[in-house]
């Protein structure tokens, strides 16, 4: 619910021209409330005036803007609001000396904003910020040339630089403009500082060129997705990350890594890759999604200098020995997030998996075991250990061949998990038509569902949820319709 101050700020910013004229006479303590209202409701004239006359050294989205789920505010900011803040950095300096030194756009706007056409996607924001940095440099040079022609002091037109902290999403289309902006921002009026870097479909040399331009202190996360680098490419890229002293998260999903049958040359590349990972002293999150790591997990993780808190190994063809290593490793007792999706956890894998759950029970917040070939007997056998994870907030079970009876038992037992917020459960196998047995993941994803029977089971689950009074837990079969539990939000 909005406060009285917030309601007043919303009304004031509705009359944009009057609000802009009144800014110079308003106390600076009102600026945060006015910015919040103008940003969330798309009052672009007021926004630009606020940024240009901002009376504090720092303007931080995370500190000023409401949480997306906060009552009384629009769910997402409009595209025009983000554009207005960025363009305000190019406006002529106001009469009074600007106080703004840091514009922090990180954290509030995530990648999922790109799914909403009324907002600005992360890729578009990255390009807009980059172009603004380049335009600011062009303006600064033009001002210096003009001052020189008029025989004025060229430094008189130079204003104090503003650091723009942002998250960047770069692909082959935006690579050149982002690279040029990073090169320019080392000495320009706008200094681009990247906190989280997402790089898609870039070559190894292009990725290295970007990394060399990033501030070694600011970078927190690197996500190299769909780059198909392979072991040789990763050996080229990863050593350049050692300089990032605050790098906490590294994601290398879909990197075309398969260590099951290596040639002598590829074995050397794997050893160099492991050594390079070991040089990342602050690493707390690692994602090796879709890398075939069968039997080699111990080599990869034992080189790390401190325990991981988030480990994502979806579709990594893990063997029972890999899980056994993990149970005995220092990582097990520190894990907050664990993703084993797409790995077999039944049969010989079940015992080590249950031991791993027991070891991680004191810290585990998010567990994703989607498509792990878990049937009712496996789930029921695992429930006592699972219920020891008393801080668990998220459980992903979609794509497992579990019947409605198993889902109901899980729901009943979930009352023991007091911090649980979300469970993504599978379509019960008894709600399919003509399902082959045992069903493959493809059969579960593509099989024909008996909608009438599924509706009946869902109604029973709702009644059971009411009976155990767990209305605070969202039970869903939608694996995409909810926000993910990001490591940095845990």
From TrEMBL:
Compartments it resides in: Cytoplasm
UniProtKB keywords: Cytoplasm, Leucine-rich repeat, Repeat
Keyword Ion transport in annotation: no
Main location class: cytoplasm
Coiled-coil region: none
Keyword GTP-binding among record annotations: no
GO cellular component: cytoplasm
Alphabetized Pfam families for the sequence: LRR_6 (PF13516)
Top-level taxon in the UniProt lineage: Eukaryota
Function: Negatively regulates Toll-like receptor-mediated NF-kappa-B signaling by disrupting IKK core complex formation through interaction with IKBKB.
Family: Belongs to the PRAME family. LRRC14 subfamily.
Subunit structure: Interacts with IKBKB; disrupts IKBKB-IKBKG interaction preventing I-kappa-B-kinase (IKK) core complex formation and leading to a decrease of IKBKB phosphorylation and NF-kappaB activation. Interacts with CHUK.
UniProt protein name: Leucine-rich repeat-containing protein 14
Organism encoding this protein: Monodelphis domestica (Gray short-tailed opossum)
